[in-house]
Amino acid sequence: MKFDTIIVGGGLAGLLCGIRLSKEGQRCVVISAGQSALHFSSGSFDLLNALPDGTPVRNPLAGVEELIRQQPLHPYAKLGKEKFGELAVLARELLLEAGIAVKGEEKANHYRVTPMGNLKPTWLTLKDLLACESDSHLPWKKIAIFNVLGFLDFYTQFIADEFRKMGTESSIHSFNFPVLECIRKNPTEMRSTNIARLFDKQENLEELIRLLKTESGEAEAIILPAIVGLGQDDVVEQLQEKVGKTICLLPTLPPSVPGIHTQQQLRKYFQHLGGVYMLGDTVLRAEKEGRKVVRVYSYNHGDIPFVGKNVVLATGSFFSQGLIATSERIYEPVFDLDVSFSKDREQWYNLDLFAAQPYQTFGVKTDDSFRAMYRGQAFENLYVAGAVLEGFNAMKEGCGAGVSVLSALSVAERILSK
Fold this sequence. Notes:
By secondary structure, this protein is of the alpha/beta class.
């Protein structure tokens, strides 16, 4: 099977890289082992929230220069300030083209509301989710929070308590419909995705509309858990139009309906552009000739190789087994690439649970063009993008999504420039 580019990993990095290449006429395949981290997404994309020394960043475009100075191995350092800004704009445009409506910009972080009701800075947020410009208050004085009776992944009281600290009073409402009983019989079925599938049916949505109109009272806005919109884009618009009030969604604990919908939209757009998406297949090994990868073999295809001019590794970090940790080392399982990590295992972690954990900066080594390093030398046609890269702490710096999309687009540009 011959392709221009083989992409290993079907998450945010892999799909955006494939979309960018496919738009320019390349024949691409994405090989995805299964669910990506998008299935656990908050519905927001972080670009840069804090420097390595902990200094908060309000303007990512202004803060990236100091980030590069503090952490020269950071993936953003390989982009440089100017390219960082260019690719951030391109990423936002590609998301919109793929049908993923987002709000936000690169010059100023806004604030998203977490599943616990706190405010956290971010770059882009899906349009239907609750977000605001202020870091201390919401735009309403009185809201109504609704939740499905028995849905345990949405903590209404915690959320109301946090909102009260910001000057917003909340009324809490639990509701139940007969159609929900089919999934309530088994507690493991009462998950956001299963509820969302029920609300993809118009008759159930109409019943929700009647309930919201009746019980929201004098509230200025209505807050719902993100349990609608799995299979369609305009659910919140329908609700707002028929209820006559602002309605916002809040992310729940995983699985994430907004994240899964984002994954579906990216995959659909990639395939619309001619890309081939192979779900449920795992790349096992590769054959190399000199400093080139010439063939890639997967579990499902046995001895039938994938052959491509270029290969992109976008398998994610420990979470998705793009990196594997043993008691002695950390390694990359597909190509056995060079990985940065401390040989002293006690240097992998910090005993302070809330401090920056060193292992989070471990990852695959690359040159300045994101070409993978193998035994100290860069491959000519194997590139690396996303969470598997070395040199950044996604949690403490608030840059996980940004690293994924910007490194992926940079790799695509490198391939297209050949």
